[in-house]
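Good morning,

Attaching, inline, the backbone tokens for the sequence recovery test we're adding to the shared suite. The designed sequence is right after.
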């Protein structure tokens, strides 16, 4: 007898089960109960965020998060993130969750829905059946921090260059916000986003429970922030790059590599054993930086997009 799948809205008590599910499906992405609870509770009203779970025999076997890209330059854009436990695929769980998410998004005014999916057997056929076309690829990379292969930090820094941790900016992170805004504007992708307001950045980036100011690194040149590497951790042994970049006026000087090296050395010293990062396939500069550090391919993903059908 086939048990029934029930799709319902997320409840705060589901945070651990959803985090466990995400780690099982996406081992290269940070997922903690605290992080999930934070993302749901702090979501802007304009995002219309909805997180649903699928239960079978009292166990959460799938989840989907859906919301409008409310800060997109073009309205009507939305994003969906779907996970189904590997042992429960091919039994209608993904279809039930995705249908629920799309109904919510289209009712909220979405005209185009984006979603990342792992490059795995069965994914293209599932996406095609649900009206999604494959858009652009991305790479997830892993670095073994126990292998001892990190490049050494330079014995001396160039004139005017200084290294800082993110904690040095905790009293007033506005300068780091400005640098992040500049770098984010150059990120490759199909959706152009408006600059995030400082209050939103403070809440959703700087105060996110995964962000670690002590492991975040900042490079200044003559007192001005030139490059940075935002660091996130699961609070245990897993480190993830949240954003690494250099402002345009300072590019071509190896500063992103310096920022990342400082962060990774501190992460290793703090007890982190593995580091993950991801890059759009078109971001050749950061892919080269990460390869130089010893990151190796761990998983591939594709971005899929579905246009809302005309009524």
């Amino acid at each position: 007898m086939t048990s029934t799948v029930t799709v319902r809205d997320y409840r705060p008590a589901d945070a651990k089960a959803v985090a466990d599910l995400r780690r099982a499906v996406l081992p290269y992405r940070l997922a903690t109960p605290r992080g999930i609870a934070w993302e749901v509770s702090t979501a802007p009203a304009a995002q219309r965020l909805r997180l649903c779970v699928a239960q079978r025999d009292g166990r959460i076997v799938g989840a989907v998060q859906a919301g409008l890209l409310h800060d997109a330059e073009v309205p009507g854009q939305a994003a969906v993130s779907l996970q189904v436990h590997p042992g429960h695929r091919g039994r209608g769980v993904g279809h039930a969750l995705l249908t629920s998410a799309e109904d919510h998004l289209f009712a909220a005014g979405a005209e185009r829905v984006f979603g990342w999916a792992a490059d795995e057997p069965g994914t293209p056929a599932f996406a095609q059946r649900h009206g999604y076309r494959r858009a652009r690829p991305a790479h997830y990379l892993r670095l073994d921090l126990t292998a001892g292969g990190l490049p050494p930090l330079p014995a001396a820094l160039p004139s005017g260059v200084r290294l800082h941790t993110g904690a040095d900016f905790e009293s007033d992170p506005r300068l780091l916000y400005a640098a992040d805004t500049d770098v984010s504007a150059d990120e490759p992708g199909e959706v152009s986003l408006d600059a995030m307001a400082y209050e939103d950045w403070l809440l959703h980036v700087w105060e996110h429970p995964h962000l670690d100011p002590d492991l975040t690194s900042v490079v200044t040149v003559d007192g001005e922030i030139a490059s940075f590497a935002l660091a996130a951790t699961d609070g245990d042994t897993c480190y993830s790059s949240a954003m690494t970049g250099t402002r345009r006026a300072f590019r071509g000087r190896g500063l992103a590599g310096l920022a990342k090296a400082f962060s990774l050395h501190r992460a290793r010293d703090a007890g982190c054993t593995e580091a993950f990062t991801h890059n759009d396939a078109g971001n050749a500069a950061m892919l080269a930086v990460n390869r130089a550090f010893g990151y190796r391919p761990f998983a591939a993903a594709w971005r899929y997009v579905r246009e809302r059908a005309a009524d």
